[in-house]
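Dear Dr. H.,

I hope your travels went smoothly. While you were away I took the liberty of generating a structure for the chain from your last submission, since the lab meeting agenda had it listed for discussion. I wanted you to have the full record in hand beforehand rather than looking at slides cold. The sequence, exactly as received, is reproduced here:
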Amino acid sequence: MLRPLLVLAFALCAFLSTAAAQESTPAAEEPVIVPNFWDPRARLEQPSIAEVGVIRFLTTDDFPPFAFRDRRGMLVGFDIDLAQAVCDVLKVQCAIQTRPFDTLVAGLKDGTGNAIIAGFDLERAGAEGLIASQTYLKIPGRFISRKDAPFEPGPPPPERLVGVVCGTAHAAYVERYFQHLHVACYQKLSIPLEELRKGVLSAVFSDALGLSFWLHGPQSEDCCRFAGGAYIDDRYFGAGLSIVMKAEDRTLKFALDYALREVYRSGVYEELYLRYFPVSLF
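The corresponding predicted structure, in token form, is as follows:
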């Protein structure tokens, strides 16, 4: 499941301050590419307010930069602002309630809320008998390497040593598609990151979001950068983040799909993406 993996990644690096995330955009080493997950040819009809009604979102408050408490105790984050943008498009009332992650599905099924926006992916939704909206974000896999040692993942040479976390989808992906590389497996991401900083490894491969925070946090000592492109593969990294609801709420699903696309088309998605992900993930 995508959310637990991302939570673990964030625990390994210092999170950007709330002020930086909300009020400024630090200079990035490479242009920030804003992803587009919406097919411009798809025909989606605008739903009526009466059909949608009030949307009661359930989320957590411990999943930065998606949903977390700032220094004032206010609930902020990419998911929070995205939920509000969706309600603005649909012109409906919007409520957001926080709960522990393990109780979100129960809150959906007992009617406390009618939509979960908290790092769910399609695999988790299907396992719970739920349905999901259009994906609104995917986290690619990426390599990082030292700035003073250029790295490209394609051959040759074969002697480069790449660090991964044992048993993860990222380790399996490297072993499947980059068989020419020598792979070193570690139990915690913090270990290969430190080995990369010291120059022992040529590169580390993991999720781009967790790596981006490490790259621009104090532990990296500004040693490293992204290398090569971004890799998206639903079989390994999941289908991405979606809004989840009960299977019978298909009217709500269609409304959310429409609203998410309109949030992107209006430019609001780009604004939110640049606010919370100022370092290019792609």
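Two observations you may find useful: The domain at 141-236 is CATH 3.40.190.10 (D-Maltodextrin-Binding Protein; domain 2). Confidence is low (pLDDT under 50) at residues 8-28.

With kind regards,
E. W.
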